[in-house]
Amino acid sequence: MNFKKELINWYSINKRELPWRATQNPYYIWLSEIILQQTQVKQGLPYYNAFVKQYPSVFDLANASEEAVLKLWQGLGYYSRARNLHTSAKYIANELNGVFPNTYKDLLKLKGVGDYTASAIASISFNEVAAVVDGNVYRVLSRYFGINTPINSTEGIKEFKALASSLIDTEQPASYNQAIMEFGARQCKPQSPDCNICPINDGCIALQKNLVNALPVKLKKTKVTTKYFNFLVCIDKDKNILFEKRKQKGIWQNLYQFPLIESKKSLAAEDFHLLNLESTVLDSVDFDYALYNEADKVHKLSHQHLYTKFWIIEVEQLPETAISIKSLKKYPAPVLISSFIEEFNF
Q: Does the annotation mark 33 as catalytic?
């Protein structure tokens, strides 16, 4: 069986019609790959279309404010992708005169571009023989060749990259790379793949040894931590509200949120006095408060679970840093915050 030929044939028949497959423009390929990192196609497609419409060229993206880019990205999560996207756009526009890097090696110099993304852009846009290895590829290769080396181990990363590089079709690397990724996404799916209609099932070791559900092997994730967040929704008589840019490094860097106080446990309405207000605008001023949600709003991230309470605070007057409630939705915010804003319906 010709592994690469079968995959390319399958792809020609079964591939989804997606806008980034109708172009070799590296800007659009790069944009799609960054958006689709850790994001499924059905979720990422509207964002891709929105970015292409808002920023049709790398110059348009480079000239945008980071705040505008983050606002357009809002809801996708992993906001470092958006910040890196914007940084790299400015680098390409200003340092490279808008000329996109055209080799795997040079693409790796872009912030936020790793082995997989560089390989995808290099092969699809410039026909370079650079094998992609993403989650879909790991799954196809581990099952077909019966490899139980953990895919997120140093050894596994090297082993699968070497194998992928040995298999790539050197005459049509773009078609092969897209074929194996699409095959993993649509045929060799994570759960309950239909192996009966698989065009390469005759050679699949996982199928022969009944290991389809056991492969690929992945080392256990790092321990998930639990945090308790208390957001102070401070509103004054003039309908102004406090909304702050989160400047410290982290997943929500440069996004906006209400003043935040962490606590050691989930608090009830009668526990408000446990919050340390010394560093907030509420210190030494009169205010009324009410707990908006008795049950925690739980927001699960890859490395931490956030148990969140929103406290509605009414004061006579807020500092000049407060903004009008009418402008609240203009600012980029984490999904946890934007969902509350929609629900509260200011």
A: yes
